[in-house]
Amino acid sequence: MFTINRRDFGSDFTFGVATAAYQIEGGQLDGRGSSIWDTFSATPGNVKNGDTGADACNHYELWPQDLDLIRDGGFDAYRFSIAWPRLLPEGTGAVNQAGIDFYDRLIDGMLERGLKPYATLYHWDLPSALQDRGGWMNRDIANWFGDYATLVGEKFGDRLAATATINEPWCVAFLSHFLGIHAPGYRDLRAAARAMHHVLFAHGTAIDALRATGTKNLGIVLNLEKSEPASDSEADKSACNFGDALFNRWYLGGVLKGQYPAELTEWLAPYLPENYEADMAVVSRPLDWLGINYYTRGLYKASNDPRRPVEQVAGDLEKTDIGWEIYPKGLSDLLVRVATEYTKIPLYVTENGMAEVEGEDDPRRVRYYDDHLKAVLAAREAGADVRGYFAWSLLDNYEWAEGYNKRFGLVHVDYQTQERTPKASYRSFQGMLHNTR
Ligand code: FCB
């Protein structure tokens, strides 16, 4: 059980759980178009065990029981993502009515259960037809994404409590176009530089599009890490500074100040889109809130690897089942940093959680959540305006390049039978949220 108490957060603090479409829905059923994760995962060698999201948790059919779990856990909100290729199978043009109907049912299902819908427009499942046209490397993606945002705003906007454009632009751009670990699996500096800018230009374009439909409470979700040098050496400190620019400041600075870090615009100068500066007003459109996904710290040392500008090393803190260090203080530090250096808009922890070995008894996860929730309280006391917290994730699910082997759920999923079984961590949230309502 948790040691923290819901009352410590005040009555309007929002507690929720988060998921993403490709990781749970399953299926190119009912007209959903192909996405880059369908083809990336079908390509041998990209994903552990050759796992794909073809079935995942079959949330597409089992969503009523999943929403019941969220309600019964005592949560206020559900952060879910909309699959672009389910609404627009080719990415642009013809609308798939079955897709609209699915999200209609899902959103109404949340409202019927008293859950606030927090939607994310893009959690990595780009329609393959748009990848064929260059995907995030092509500037036109801003218009494609803007049109998709208009559709979402028109169909669902009035029922959404909050809407985010992009989940984790660093992953969309750098992880997927420079490190080659996520779809589309590029390893190319020009591709990465273009994606780094276009993903934020598309974000700003979508903010304008959503606002034009009257959709309220708009934001973006950034994955941030606490960057620290592996030693006190000047070389490691400067690697840390570069890593921080690449991971954190490109996105914080771009979105909240209309400015990219100078060391990166210098490094990427030959590859960035021409005249990108003219887009910065769109990149930095005013937002209503900022979402932060936090998992761990980044520990940097000067790189000996010519393929990487900086190198990350494993630290000596306790690690989760995916090898990430457990570091709650990093969450407080980050929230305070964002509130002090970047913005006064409300902050939400839109993802936080840990991978643990399979099982329903997960005491380390209970402690992880308790400690990170304390870190949120500490940040609030230090002046950060944090309004909500979403656990990643409701269910064990498809963990991208790691496949089904890494389990982040509050609820265990048996992938043979699709049976859901709440874990001790789910019960801990339930205890805290119900006892103090
Ligand atoms: C985040 C992703 C989410 C999930 C967690 C573990 O980077 O947004 O989909 O995979 O990591």
UniProtKB/TrEMBL annotation:
Could you provide one GO biological process annotation from this protein's UniProt record?
cellulose catabolic process
The residues the record assigns to binding substrate are 23, 123, 167, 295, 392, 399-400
Q: So which domain of life are we looking at?
A: Bacteria
Active site per database record: 168 (proton donor), 351 (nucleophile)
Is the Hydrolase keyword given for this protein? yes
Q: What is its EC number?
A: 3.2.1.21
- An example Gene Ontology molecular-function term: beta-glucosidase activity
* Keywords of the record: Carbohydrate metabolism, Cellulose degradation, Glycosidase, Hydrolase, Polysaccharide degradation
Sorted alphabetically, the Gene Ontology cellular component annotations on this record are: cytosol
| Reaction(s) this enzyme catalyzes, per UniProt | Hydrolysis of terminal, non-reducing beta-D-glucosyl residues with release of beta-D-glucose
What does the similarity note say? Belongs to the glycosyl hydrolase 1 family.
Name it. Beta-glucosidase
What is the protein's species of origin?
Devosia crocina
